[in-house]
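Human: Not sure, check this?
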Amino acid sequence: MANKGPAFGMSRHVQDKIDSKYDSELEQILVEWISRQCGSGVAKPEAGKMGFQAWLKDGCVLSELINSLFTGEKPVKKIQSSTAAFKQMEQISQFLNASEKYGVTKTDMFQTVDLWEGKDLAAVQRTLSALGSLAFTKDEGTYNGDPNWFFKKSMENKRDFSDDQLKAGKNVIGLQMGSNKGASQEGMSYGRSRQIL
């Protein structure tokens, strides 16, 4: 990757806005969860945004994390630390593909350069939060964290109604349509009554 100098003008304003979305409290929760989830093999990073990025940048911690959430066959087969940029980015891409297979939606995913170049670490936090919420919601026994860290996602609650129940429902006037009680024109008069002589 090419080294980029400081941004100016509108580019600087946009980057500052992106940087302001980074949450330090969420960083602490994510670090604690990833450390518990991956076990003693993963050391904790230095506090702060740059420490968080450096910790995740090579993709090894992320790969360990996603592998710990799967039972049976692991999605990331080979986890190896490398100093080569393309290898690190490939490892991050493997994590993103495995996360998508696990159920994280495309809209919750970060781009590889968001983490590797540190362009949008708030997007990285959103992806990890979505992954944590999904792991907590699935309740497969692989989630190793505090239940208060992530919210439980809503699940499908499918209902099957019989034909009789469906027919009975057609006869009910829903409250969204208003009420038919008291709707008459009795007692209404407009203007003077007609005088017939």
